[in-house]
Amino acid sequence: MNRKDFLKSGTLVGAATLLSTSNAFANNLTDNPIDKLVDANGNYIQQALPYSENFLEPHMDAETMHLHYTFHHGGAVKAANKDLAMIKKAMDENNLETVDYWTKKLSYHFSSHVLHSIFWTNLTNKNTAPSGELLKRIEKDFGSYDKLKGYIAATSKNVDGNGWGILGYQPYSDKLTVLQCENHEKLTQWGVVPLLVVDVWEHAYYLKYKNKRADFVDTMLQVINWDNVADRLNTALKIK
């Protein structure tokens, strides 16, 4: 296989199969279609929100939800498809001088698509708490549920610039881990499956919370759908 064929199979086919039915993200919940991020042709698609735009009121206002989902998440999906098209064009024309630029763009935009899709399902409009296997692992890896909440809150609030706080499962160590992710893809760990994500880009909170990121994070942690987090963990454990 020459370099052009390798790039084509490794980038285009790899991106299309990254979320195949064996993947912990795509194979999450049969009743959660938002996890299906690609169509049959490998193009990225944005699914409908699993609830109405005012579902999270008063914790997240409907206007922010609309703008965030439609233009920020939606914009990332459109941009990721453009990135794929430009990579294919560069390879078809044997003009590989630009392929690294579009590959970096794809990493940024597709990571945004993945994290936003998880974010919407991680939220609900009532208080829940972890239980079962998820709670056992939280207590084993962090000491207690309260300690985890403090850890992920501090991690999310202190992201430099824009980014995410992430609770994930690390199959290589069989542990839960907390990450501070800058932008959508920086400071991550290889192999970690995101279970819970907290969006701290300014577009996620500025209309309602102004510059008070900490208040937004504290509010979001009150409405985490821990049942969804538990379902994601159960699926992630299957790939260990």
Describe the protein's architecture and organization.
The protein is mainly alpha-helical and 240 residues long. It folds into 2 domains: 120 residues, Fe,Mn superoxide dismutase (SOD) domain (Helix Hairpins, Orthogonal Bundle); 106 residues, 3-Layer(bab) Sandwich (minor pseudopilin epsh fold). Helices cover 49% and strands 10% of the residues. The chain is built from 8 helices and 3 strands, in the order H-H-H-H-H-E-E-E-H-H-H. The protein has a 3-stranded antiparallel beta sheet. Strand 1 and strand 2 form a beta hairpin. Helix 1 runs antiparallel to helix 2 and helix 2 runs antiparallel to helix 3. The two termini are 31 Å apart. 32% of the residues are buried.
Descriptive keywords:
Helix Hairpins; 2 domains; mainly alpha; minor pseudopilin epsh fold; single chain; 240 residues; disordered N terminus
